[in-house]
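Subject: Re: docking follow-up (zinc ion)

Dear J.,

Thanks for your patience while I sorted out the input files. As discussed at Tuesday's group meeting, I've set up the holo structure prediction with zinc ion included as the bound ligand rather than trying to dock it afterwards. The sequence and the ligand SMILES I used are pasted below, so you can double-check that they match what you have on your end before we go further.
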Amino acid sequence: MKPASQHITACRRCHAPICWALTTANGKRQPVDAQPSEEGNLAVTQGADGLLYVRSLTKAHPEPRPSEWRAMPHHATCPSPPPPRRSSGGGRRATSGAVRPVPWQR
Ligand SMILES: [Zn+2]
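The structure tokens for the complex came back this morning:
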């Protein structure tokens, strides 16, 4: 599987082809590389609603389903990622429960 052409857009920063997908974990929009990658640690699929959904592949379930393709988060490949966000108030900590990205293992 590959992203359909209508899902592909250009990164605002580096103009690489990317897709916006919603994370199955929390419904946030996440840019993923439009080009499927064997090295990627994400599984992307098009939902019945026509939107793209992305989930992290885990050691327990390292293989994408037949309807999914493996992709790299664009943050990992973008040559000019957004600057770290300085929280102005709120004081929400990102540390608790945050999952460290694990290097993909073949
Ligand atoms: Zn980019």
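A couple of observations from a first look. The first helix runs from residue 74 to 77. The radius of gyration is 14 Å.

Let me know if you'd like me to rerun anything.

Best regards,
T.
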